Amino acid sequence: MTTPVETLSEIENFSFEDAMKELEMLVRKLEEGRVPLKEAITAYERGTNLRKHNEKLLEEARLKIEQISQDTGGALSTHPSPLEETL
Question: Where in the cell is it found (predicted)?
Answer without folding.
Answer: Cytoplasm
